[in-house]
Amino acid sequence: MRRHRLLLQLGLALLLLALIALLINNLTVNLIRTGLGLGFGWLGRPAGFALAETALPYAPSDSYLWALTIGWLNSLKVILAGLVLATLLGVAAGAARNSGNRLLRSLAGTYVALIRQVPLLLQLLFWYFVAFLGLPSMPVGGLIQLSNQGIQLLGLNLSVEFCAVLTGLTVFTGASIAEIVRGGINAVPRGQWEAFRSLGLNEGLGLRRIVLPQALPAILPALTSQYLNLAKNSTLAIAVGYADLYAVSDTTITQTGRAIEGFLLLLFSFLLLNLLISGGMSALNGAVLSRVRRSR
Amino acid sequence: MTRWPDRLITLLLLALLSWGGWVVVHWLLHGADWSVVSANLPLFAVGSYPSDQRWRPLLWISTCVVLVVLTLTAPRGAGWRRALPPLWIAMAPLGLWLLAGGLGLLPVGTRHWGGLTLTLLLTAGSGLLALPLGVLLALGRRSDLPVLRWSSTAYIELMRAVPLIAVLFFGQLLIPLFLPPGLEINRVLRAVLAFALFAAAYIAEDVRGGLQAIPPTQREAASVLGLSPLQTLQLVVLPQALRVALPSLTNQAVGLLQNTSLMAILGLVELLGISRSLLANPAFIGRYLEVYLWLAAVYWLACTAMALLARHLEVQLDPVRSNR
After folding, report:
1. A173, part of any domain
2. Residue B116: CA atoms inside 13 Å, Cβ hemisphere, count?
3. Which of A92, A169, A279, B1 is at 20 to 30 A from B117, Cα to Cα?
C-alpha cells in the first residue's frame, strides 16, 4: 500500500515536471523566435513616459524601476485611503441595516442590493466620466475647492482620477463590508441589546460599546478578504487613467515587450501588498481577540 | 425620549430623497436623450454580427431566457423537469455552434461577436470549464498525497493573489508564448481560458469549504457499505459538499458575469466594450449617463436572474424540503 502511494506520487511529480518542461520548452522556442531573452537589465533603462501623478519626484528620464515604484506608491495611496473610507461606509451601512428606523434600513438595503449587482468597472467609469468630470467649478465652504480638474481639500490636491477610483472602490467595497457587519451584528445574541437598553444606554452608545466589540471576532476574518479584494480591484484604475502599479506595468510591457518579467514583477508586488494587508489584519485580529477575552 | 432623534433622521432622509428625486425627474424630463440606447439596441445585443445572420445570437439569447423562465416556473413533480439540467449544460455548446457557425451554418469570425451575447457566452464557457477544474483543485488540496496537495495549494494561492485584469492581460500575451509555435488560438478562447483558470482557484476554495463541512462519519459509513473511494466521492461526498458550497458558488458565478466587463479594457466588444466604442462615436458624444444607466440595468437584471436561479436550485436540492 505504501509503495503504491509512493509510486502514485512519483508519477504525479513526473507528470507535473513534464508539463512544466513542455511549457518552458515552448516558451524558449517562442522567445528565440521573437529575439527576446529573459532578464531584468532593462529595468535600469530610462522609461521615457510621463506619469500624471507622482508621490515622489519622477521624470521620464528616470528608470523603469523607479516608474514602477511610483506606480506601486500610487496603488498604495488609493488602497489605504479606500480601506479606511470603505470600512467607515460599510460599518455605517451595516449598522443602518439593523437600525430601528425603517426608512434608513430600507435605504441601506437598496444601496447594498444595487451596488453588488453592477460591475465595479462600470461604476468606476460612472464616477469618472459622469460624476467627477462633470463637476462644476465651485468653492465649498472655503476649505474645499471642487472642479473637474481635481479637488482641493485643506491644501491637499487630489486629482480627478484618484477621486474617481477612490469613490468607486469605497462605494463598491462598502456594500460588501455592510453585509459582513450586518451578519456580525446579527450573530450577537439579542439578550445583549436588551441588557444595555435596560441599563439605560442609548442605541448608538450600546452599538459602539457593547454590540460591535462582540461582533468583531466574527467580522474581522471576512473583512480581511474584502480588503484583499479592494487591493486587487484597485488595478481597474487603468480604465480611468490613474497611474497605479498595473497601469505602469502595462505601459512598461507594451514598450519593452517584456511580458514574462513584467508579470513576475507584478506578481511579486502584489504578494508583498497582500502580505502587508493580511499581516496588519492578523495583528489587529490578535489584539481584538485578546481584548475581548480580557474584558469577559 | 428616544423618539425624536428617530423622527429627525426620518425627516432629514425624506428631505434628501425628495431633493434627489427632483434632480432625477428634472434630468429625465429635460436632460436625458435615450436615442443613444434605442438606436443601438442590436449593437448592445449582438455587437457587429452580420445583420443577415443576427437571428443566430438572438435565437441563443431567447433560448436562454426561455430556459430561465421554464426553470423558475416549472411545477414540482413534472416529468419534463428532468430534461432541464442537460438542457442547461447544452447551452454553452449550442451558443458556440450558433455563433461560430459550421455544420450547415455560415462561419462567422470571433471579431464579429459582441454585446450581451459575448458577455453571456464568456460567462457560460468559462463557468463550465472552471467548475470541474475547481472541484479537482479542491480535492487535490485536501488529498493526503503531498505532491498533489502542495501543487494544488500553490496554484490556488498564487491565482488568488493576482488581480483578475493582470491574469486576463497576461492570458492574452502569455498563452500564445507557452503554446507550440504554429498553434494559435483566438482572443475569445484565450479570454475564456484565462477566466476559467482564474475562477477555478476561487471555486476550489468554496468547494473545499463544502468538503470540510461533510462529517468524516459519512466516508466511514460509505466504506462500511463497501463503496470504493471513487464511489464514495461521487455518490456521497461531492453531492453534499457541492450543495453546501452552492451559495458561495452563486456569488462566484455572479462575480464571473460582472468580471467579463474587464475584457472591455483588453479590447473585446462585449456589453461594456461595445458601449465604449459607441461613446467614442461623435453622434453620441457625452451621453455617458444614459449608456451607463442602461448597462447597469442590463447587468443588474442578468445578475439578479442568476441569483434567483441559484436560490431556486438551493430549494430544489434541500433534502429536508424535497422529501416533504
Report:
1. yes
2. 25
3. A169
Search chain A and give the residue with CA nearest B256. Answer: A119
How far is Cα A166 from Cα A294, in angstroms, rounded to an integer? Answer: 37
Residue of B19, B178, B195 to mutate for A, most A C-beta atoms under 10 A = B178
How many other CB atoms sit within 10 Å of the CB of residue A258? 22
What ipTM, to 2 d.p.? 0.87
Instruction: Kindly state whether residue A131 falls inside one of the protein's structural domains.
Output: yes
Contact between residue A261 and residue A84 where contact means Cβ atoms under 8 Å apart: no
Report residue B99: phi and psi, to 5°: -80, -45
Note whether residue A29 is domain-resident. no
Query: Domain range spanning residue A135?
Result: 52-291
- Alpha carbon distance B269, B43 (integer Å): 10
B142-170 CB burial, b ≥16 within 10 A, e <16: beeeebbeebbeebbeebbbbbbbbbbbb
Q: What tens digit of pLDDT does each residue of A17-27 get?
A: 888 888 888 77
Q: Which residue of A has its CA nearest to B6?
A: A101
| Rounded Cα–Cα distance for residues B286 and A118 (Å) | 21
Tell me the pLDDT tens digit for each residue of A95-144.
888 887 888 889 999 999 899 999 999 999 999 998 888 777 777 766 77
Cα B162 to the center of its chain, rounded Å:
20
How confident is chain B (324 residues) per 10-residue block, as mean pLDDT?
A: 72 89 86 82 85 86 88 76 82 85 80 87 91 94 87 90 89 78 78 92 92 88 88 88 88 91 88 88 85 92 89 79 52
Smallest Cα–Cα separation from B45: which of B62, B34, B58, B63?
Answer: B58
The tally of domains found in chain A comes to: 1
Say how far apart CA B140 and CA B149 lie, in whole Å. 5
CB atoms within 10 A of CB A47: 24
- The one-letter amino acid code at A9 reads Q
B136: buried, middle or exposed (CB in 10 Å: 19+, 13-18, 0-12)? middle
| Chain A CB contacts of B165 below 8 Å | 235-236, 238, 246
Yes or no: say if A33 and B185 are a contact pair by the CB < 8 Å rule: no
Burial classification of residue A230, based on how many CB atoms lie within 10 Å of its CB (0-12 exposed, 13-18 middle, 19 or more buried)? buried
CB-nearest to B272 from A100, A121, A232 is A121
Hey, which bits of A55-213 come out as E strands? Answer: 138-140, 144-147, 150-153, 156-159
Strands A150-153 and A144-147: antiparallel
Closest CA relative to residue A236, chosen from A95, A99, A85, A123 = A123
C-alpha cell at B159: 491565482
Instruction: Supply the CATH number for residue A61's domain.
Output: 1.10.3720.10
Could you tell me if residue A141 is inside a domain? yes
Side-chain-side CA neighbours of B309 within 13 Å: the count stands at 22
